[in-house]
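Input (structure):
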């Protein structure tokens, strides 16, 4: 990393080897939160130790849970039981992590304590009304800065009320926030979604002993949590993150002669849209040793360099690959023909406005693209991606990694500003990619 926190990626030869991708971010956050609400000691194996997850760990300690990491890298959490968290003495700083902020707001919403919460410049711009509004219906008082942004104060309800809530947008964070508020609420709390988002909350709550029912009705997919269960500590084996694995996967696909093996990647069907899409584009990706670990489907991936072709990615696939559009746009740049990506409205409220960050980055690297309100069209060219751009990441880890992958196969190096943002989800990204044959520095 240079003194200005930039990284550059220069054209590399083929990538070869085995990559151990770090643990799944979504599952790591939840293991800390649910462990803190359970009775007994939860052991977590393969925890992602990125900045986002460390922010959650710090917050759970501030709320009274005992959280420690041993020398073997196993995390141990001694919980306080549902309703047992105590008021933190200071403001909780959630850093860059929307998942930490929104899920924790749900947990705090049904604890009769007052908490102040903030985050970094990117998180302070992100909308919190989407969780503050349903929490208000449950009796929680959330006072936000203007525009329903952080910093904010959560005053948990003394006597929370269960709700039935239809999600206005496809968001696992909002769904999880409400279900977690429902944990310390008498009765049954139900969330209805018309688009199926990731279900790590539901799977892990069951793993800890909660009753979670899922039914399909005319209104959509209804998920109901039965309030005030006793959560019992349970060990969690965190699979490798399919979102992080998408970066070495695309790097291998677009660098001639590459072959990578990625063991133990989470293949939850509500997270694997990128792999389905890449295969439709002609990618040579094989799944080996498909298995289930702690309720989550897992497989070893074998990826070989491939000739990709442009396709139309349907809008309904967006929830299962919402974090992967930046790296898909890079794959699309190296594909023959047009790739059309639809249903991308939610990309505008991620760690950055990812739709415009991607479009601007592509243009800076000589790739023709069209940015619509909620779509992106990329004109690919397998042998003619110029590169050479300097990318403004807006402190977004996925924008940074995506364009470093582009620099590996473009004609000219790509420079990425604020590359330290990568530490939020994939701390050793550059080292690991360089070990496979990349040139990032
Ligand atoms: C996440 C849900 C998604 C995703 C985020 C992690 C989660 O956000 O973008 O990186 O762990 O629940 P939304 O729920 O806002 O789509």
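Output (sequence):
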């Amino acid at each position: 990393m240079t003194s200005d926190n930039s990284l550059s990626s220069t054209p590399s030869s083929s990538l070869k080897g085995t990559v151990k991708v770090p643990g799944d971010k979504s599952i790591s956050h939840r293991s800390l939160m649910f462990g803190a609400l359970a009775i007994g000691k939860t052991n977590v194996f393969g925890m992602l130790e990125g900045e986002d997850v460390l922010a959650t760990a710090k917050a759970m300690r501030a709320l009274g849970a005992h959280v420690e990491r041993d020398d073997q890298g196993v995390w141990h959490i001694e919980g306080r039981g549902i309703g047992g968290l105590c008021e933190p003495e200071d403001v909780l700083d959630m850093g860059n992590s929307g998942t930490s902020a929104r899920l924790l707001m749900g947990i705090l919403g049904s604890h009769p304590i007052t908490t102040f919460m903030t985050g970094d410049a990117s998180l302070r711009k992100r909308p919190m009304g989407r969780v503050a509004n349903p929490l208000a219906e449950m009796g929680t008082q959330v006072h936000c800065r203007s525009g329903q942004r952080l910093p904010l104060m959560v005053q948990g309800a003394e006597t929370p009320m269960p709700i039935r809530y239809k999600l206005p947008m496809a968001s696992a964070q909002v769904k999880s926030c409400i279900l977690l508020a429902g944990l310390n609420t008498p009765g049954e709390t139900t969330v209805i979604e018309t688009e199926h988002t990731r279900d790590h909350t539901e799977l892990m709550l069951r793993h800890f002993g909660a009753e979670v029912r899922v039914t399909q009705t005319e209104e959509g997919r209804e998920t109901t949590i039965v309030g005030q269960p006793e959560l019992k500590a349970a060990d969690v084996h965190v699979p490798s993150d399919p979102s992080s694995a998408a970066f070495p996967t695309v790097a291998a696909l677009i660098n001639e002669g590459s072959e990578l093996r990625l063991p133990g990647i989470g293949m939850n069907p509500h997270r694997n849209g990128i792999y389905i899409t890449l295969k439709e584009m002609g990618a040579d990706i094989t799944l080996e040793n498909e298995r289930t670990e702690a309720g989550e489907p897992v497989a070893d991936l074998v990826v070989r360099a491939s000739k990709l072709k442009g396709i139309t990615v349907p809008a309904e696939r967006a929830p299962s690959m919402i974090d992967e559009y930046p790296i898909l746009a890079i794959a699309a740049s190296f594909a023959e023909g047009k790739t059309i990506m639809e249903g991308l409205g939610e990309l505008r409220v991620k760690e950055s406005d990812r739709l415009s960050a991607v479009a601007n980055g592509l243009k800076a690297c000589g790739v023709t693209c069209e940015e619509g309100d909620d779509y992106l069209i990329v004109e690919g060219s397998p042998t003619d991606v110029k590169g050479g751009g300097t990318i403004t990441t807006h402190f977004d880890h996925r924008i940074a990694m995506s364009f470093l992958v582009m620099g590996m196969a473009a004609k000219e190096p790509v420079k990425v500003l604020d590359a330290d943002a990568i530490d939020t989800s994939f701390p050793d990204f550059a080292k690991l990619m360089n070990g496979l044959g990349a040139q990032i520095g």
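Notes: The first strand starts at residue 7 and ends at 10. The radius of gyration is 21 Å.
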